[in-house]
Design a protein that fits this description.
The chain is an alpha+beta fold and 236 residues long. It is 22% helix and 27% strand. A six-stranded antiparallel sheet has the order 3-13-10-15-5-4. It has a four-stranded antiparallel sheet with strand order 6-14-11-12, with no helix packed on it.
């Protein structure tokens, strides 16, 4: 059965095929503008250090958002069976917080600091314990980036290298070669839209050209059970 969106009819099989091949898909209007505005109102009450926080899942309101998001009919086919949400990170570019990020892969996950975790490079960030698990774990993860503002070519959109997630964990030389061979695509996303992507997909972000807001909630989803004795820090 097809699903109707603002783009017309979207076939889940074709969506999953594009996601598998390219490593990302853009889903417009997953959240309505009033929902985005309500989220921003709640964010104003969250203590932050610098341009955001990694700790939003400590709040019940964001746990509810995570559960609703992973059950959305356009998103759930991308996540696999019985997915969990492990983390919700808030990124907020603004006139006062304007940065760039070089081309990279996301290779860390938040886990409980048990004995097994120490074998995978345990580090602490904002009170959370992170490790770099094997590539077969990273390949199962999906990031859902919900845009609370219009993301245009002028406010530091994410740029991705399509298909690069299929190459495993990459060295600096491999990253440069893939960028030269495949090029980068800017992900322009309307307010309330979602960029679903594999964390191993090469991605970068430039500074904003004009002073404005670019606020994003970044949810990380994965399988309920982890191998090698690793345990998710949180799982909703």
């Amino acid at each position: 059965m097809s699903l109707r969106t603002s783009m017309g009819y979207v076939w889940p099989d074709k969506l999953c095929q594009q996601f598998d091949q390219q490593g990302y898909v853009i889903l417009p209007q997953i959240w309505s503008p009033p929902t985005c505005n309500a989220v921003c109102d709640h964010l104003a009450e969250v203590p932050q250090i610098g341009p955001g926080t990694r700790r939003l899942l400590t709040y019940d309101w964001y746990r509810s958002l995570a559960k609703c998001l992973k059950s959305h009919p356009l998103i759930s086919p991308l996540l696999g069976a019985a997915p969990i949400v492990n983390q919700c990170t808030y990124f907020a570019k603004s006139p006062d917080q304007n940065w760039l990020v070089a081309l990279h892969q996301d290779v860390s996950i938040a886990v409980q600091p048990n004995a097994a975790a120490t074998r995978w490079g345990l580090v602490n960030k904002e009170g959370l314990s992170f490790v770099q698990p094997p590539v077969e774990v990273l390949a199962q993860l999906v990031a859902l980036r919900v845009h609370l503002d219009d993301c245009t070519s002028e406010n530091g959109p994410l740029k991705v290298v399509p298909g690069s997630h299929q190459q495993g964990r990459l060295t600096d030389a491999m990253i440069a070669q893939l960028r030269d061979d495949s090029g980068e695509i800017a992900c322009l996303i309307p307010k309330g839209g979602v960029l679903a992507m594999r964390p191993l997909l090469l991605h970068a972000s430039s500074k904003m050209i004009f002073p404005q807001h670019r606020r994003v909630l970044h949810f990380l989803c994965g399988p309920r059970q982890l191998p090698h004795g690793l345990v998710w820090h949180e799982a909703f």
